[in-house]
Amino acid sequence: MRGKESRLLTLGIETSCDETSVAVVEDGRRILANVIHSQVELHHEFGGVVPELAARDHLERLPHLLDQALEKAAVQPADLDLIAVTRGPGLVGCLLVGVGVAEGLATAWSKPLTGVNHLWGHIYAAMLARPDLEPPLLGLVVSGAHSDLVRMPEHGRFEVIGRTRDDAAGEAFDKAARMLDLGYPGGPALDRLARTGDPRRQPLPKPSLPGLEYSFSGLKTALLYRLRDLGEAVTDQDRADLAAAFEQSVVESLLEKLDLGLEEQPVAEVVVAGGVAANTLLRKRAAEVVGDRARLTTPPLDLCTDNAAMIAAAGYLGGGPRPADVDPSLGWEP
Ligand code: KG4
Ligand code: ZN
Questions:
Q1: pLDDT digits over 139-151, tens only?
Q2: How big is the chain by its Cα radius of gyration, in Å?
Q3: pLDDT for the residue numbered 212
Q4: Centre of ligand 2 from the C-alpha of residue 18, in Å
Q5: Quick check: CB of 305 below 6 Å from ligand 1?
Q6: Domains of the chain, residue spans
Q7: CB 3.0–4.6 Å: which of 12, 219, 246, 260 could bond 311 by disulfide?
Q8: Ligand 1 close to Cβ of residue 187 (< 6 A)
């Protein structure tokens, strides 16, 4: 028998976009299982996520992933204390699948259910990477749909201090990757290509807005024009150099605001998370920019991209239980 007082188990379910994931997390900080199925191959031929296909695939795969997670964690449904599911933001059909399944399990197993904000999950991924990490912290969440600079004064409370005016960083990377014929998913491919390029050979402007806002649409247009000017004469080296220049502009723009946020209100802990935090240059430069002003936590790659362990952590540590009603356009509120 397990000592229930010291070992509370949360089942996490994540289906907001193109990863189906189920996890079991102990005390909100220790991963017992975190199984992830990426739909990359399913959407590859379409060059992006097809929402209807994504939702159907989540529904088909969830039962098996659930079995796998429970087996890997060596727990029975009766051992679980909480079920945490992403309620937004994300694709509505995909979110409905996750919440529907979670509601069914909560009823069948008589367990409490909590709805989780996916963006909170990205921050809480850092607490799985570093179980001693506590707010207050300054967080940069960079994903496919968000580039947000947030302050987290305490568990379950977030204040947005900076956001993008147009594209999110991940969206910008994905669009640039498409222009460079790198296909979907674009971010990781652009990262790889950029490693073989030199940003100084094809410099692109670094977007800069006053205050803490980002904008990446001008940079995207600059890349488009540069490629148009090069036309048929474009070489593989040009493409690598442009990938490196684009990456550098996005990364420096993100970190300029992080730097400013840290200057304006110093804090001991900084978290850089979300899918784009898997980017090689961003990880390296974030460490340099934060320096010894604060302790930087960047979750390992598999906790940066979407996964259910971060949802379980946020569901357990972030207060609640909260209603699990689907909200595709949820901001940073619970
Ligand atoms: O957080 P995430 O997995 O899903 C969302 O919640 O959106 O983020 C996905 C985004 C995609 O835009 C993807 O291209 C980007 O993260 N991404 C990267 C890298 N790995 C994933 N962008 C740049 N470099 C990477 N290594
Ligand atoms: Zn995400």
A1: 999 999 999 999 9
A2: 20
A3: 94
A4: 10
A5: yes
A6: 9-130+301-317, 137-297
A7: 12
A8: yes
Q: Is the CB of 306 under 6 A from ligand 1?
A: yes
Each residue's pLDDT tens digit, 251-287: 999 999 999 999 999 999 999 999 999 999 999 999 9
Closest ligand 1 atom to residue 186 Cα is: 14
Distance 322 CA to ligand 1 centre (A): 27
In the predicted model, residues of the chain with pLDDT beneath 50 are 1-4
Amino acid at 12: G
CATH architecture of 9-130+301-317: 2-Layer Sandwich (3.30)
Q: How far apart are CA 31 and CA 9, in angstroms?
A: 10
Query: 10 Å Cβ neighbour count for 3?
Result: 6
Question: Can you give the pLDDT at residue 120?
Answer: 98
d(CA 298, CA 281): 13
pLDDT of residue 10: 98
**What's at 41, amino acid-wise?**
E
CATH of domain 137-297: 3.30.420.40
